Structures are given as structure tokens and as C-alpha cells.
Amino acid sequence: MIPAGPLWAPLLGFPLEWAAIALLTAGAIYWERAALSGIGIEGCVLSAMLGLCLGYEWSGSYLVAALAGVGASLAFALAASVLLLGFRSDPVVGSFCLSLIPAAALVLFSRAGPLRLLHETPPPGLIHGTIFDGTYSEDLVLNPWLVAAPFVLALAALIMLKTPFGLRLRGYSESPALARHGPWQVVRTRLWGALLGALWAAPAAGILLRSDTEFPTLGLGYIALACAVAGRWAFVPGILLAIGPALLRTARPYVADDLAGTIALEAGPFLIAVLYLVFLSRRALRAATTSQSRLDPDVL
């Protein structure tokens, strides 16, 4: 089916999709470096969505909702970090199970009734009073989350690659011997790494709530983790790999009335993530040089 309006109109959603997955990829890199599984970034973005939706539902102020979204994402990261690092739980299983909590809450609130943030007009969160109001390009030009995304990604890369904190975070994840010295400093550094990863996920939540107004998006954190792994934990390759899933998600309006096509394009991004892991992740998930380090939970 050809969507209503200009044929090219749905393609304007591509920057939204790409920016959201790229931000989640950056967050997943931080969570992996913090000795937590990048799977937990799914819980961060869902918590941020939940905070945004409920904050706006109860206050009617988008500023309050945005603060609630950021706070919810940070709260999830703090709780998950304390539980996983404090009890030395399996990070993959623990992050996945904890991420189910905001997912279930978001689904329940969405089914309870239409959320104002998703259906109110004019759209909350956009800059109003310009010539772009009500046009196809309003989400590109008037969305503060999208405008901030490149700067947030640059800041995330700068902190990880060019600061002493980033050096320590990477060092603890790559060297088990280094991670055993000064345990409280290691835990503190990893905790801050998880909180920063959650902070990068908050803008992604704001973007996704504008790209999917029918129902909040689930599962993009897992796709972002696949991009991070396939990109060998590097920011630029991971961001570029996010293009593939973003393109498929952008094409969904073209098959809106075709059930088979809709299912294919909904599942397509996850299939691409699997292909990334199959063909590109072998060297990213590097084998350790000794039997000790292969079994050490502190090694990335």
C-alpha cells in the first residue's frame, strides 16, 4: 500500500529511527564496559518511556515528563547496578529479567487507556509557533531530542575515549588483573558507567515516542546491543550499523495494510541484528588468551 500523502513522507522518519538506535548503541557500549550486560539498556529506555508517559499523564507538562523520563532511566540503572554488581549476579540474565519490569508496566499502562503523550494534538514536546508546525518535517526540525542526539553521541564518545574516567572504565572491562585492585573504585566507576549509559538512552525514549505513536516500541535495546557487538564496541561502526534496522523500521508505513509485509518489517530489524551477530561479532567477542581470563566475569 502507498501511504497517504507524498510518497516520500514516511522516509522522513529515518533520522528518528537511526538516532534512537544509535543512542541506544552508545548506551549499550557503556553498560558492557561497566561489566553489566548491554541488554539492560532495554530496561533503561523502557523506564524512560514509562517516566515520560506517566509524567505527562499526571502533570500535563512536557518538561516535568522529560525530567521524569530521565529520572526513571537513571533509577533503573542505579537499581540494576546495585543488584547485579552487589550480588555479582549473572549480568545477562539479571539485566534481561530486570528489563521485563518496565516493559510489563509500560504495556499495562498502555492497555489501560490511550496515553495523552501519544495522542494529544498539537504533539507535546515539539517546538511550536514556527512555519513547520503541522508539516511532515516538524519531527525533524522541531524535536529537541532529535536535535540534541548528535551532540549526545559526540559527548558519549568523548567521555569514553578521551577522559580518565573512560580510560578506567575500559581498563576495568579489558583487564581482570586491573579490575581486582581497589574494588570500591572499580564498583564506583562501573556504577557511573551504567548511569551514563542510561542517560544516553533517555533521548532515545523521547524520539521513539514520536516515531511510534500507536504503541511504545519494545525490543530496540536488543537491536542496539547487536550493533554495539558487531561494531566491536566502537562508536562509529555501531552507529553506522544502526542504519540497517532503522531503514526497515522506516519502511513500515508502506505495508501498513499488508499483514505479511507488516510482520516482515516488524521482524526484519531483529533478523538483521541476528545476522550482525552471526557474521560480524566473532572478533568482537574476543577469546581470552588464558583459561583463567576466559572464566573471569570481569573480562568484557
TrEMBL record:
<keyword id="KW-1133">Transmembrane helix</keyword>
<feature type="transmembrane region" description="Helical">
    <location>
        <begin position="221"/>
        <end position="247"/>
    </location>
</feature>
<feature type="transmembrane region" description="Helical">
    <location>
        <begin position="191"/>
        <end position="209"/>
    </location>
</feature>
<feature type="transmembrane region" description="Helical">
    <location>
        <begin position="64"/>
        <end position="85"/>
    </location>
</feature>
<feature type="transmembrane region" description="Helical">
    <location>
        <begin position="12"/>
        <end position="31"/>
    </location>
</feature>
<dbReference type="GO" id="GO:0022857">
    <property type="term" value="F:transmembrane transporter activity"/>
</dbReference>
<dbReference type="Pfam" id="PF02653">
    <property type="entry name" value="BPD_transp_2"/>
</dbReference>
<protein>
    <recommendedName>
        <fullName>ABC transporter permease</fullName>
    </recommendedName>
</protein>
<dbReference type="GO" id="GO:0005886">
    <property type="term" value="C:plasma membrane"/>
</dbReference>
<keyword id="KW-0472">Membrane</keyword>
<keyword id="KW-0812">Transmembrane</keyword>
<feature type="transmembrane region" description="Helical">
    <location>
        <begin position="142"/>
        <end position="161"/>
    </location>
</feature>
<feature type="transmembrane region" description="Helical">
    <location>
        <begin position="38"/>
        <end position="58"/>
    </location>
</feature>
<feature type="transmembrane region" description="Helical">
    <location>
        <begin position="92"/>
        <end position="112"/>
    </location>
</feature>
<keyword id="KW-1003">Cell membrane</keyword>
<dbReference type="InterPro" id="IPR001851">
    <property type="entry name" value="ABC_transp_permease"/>
</dbReference>
<feature type="transmembrane region" description="Helical">
    <location>
        <begin position="259"/>
        <end position="279"/>
    </location>
</feature>
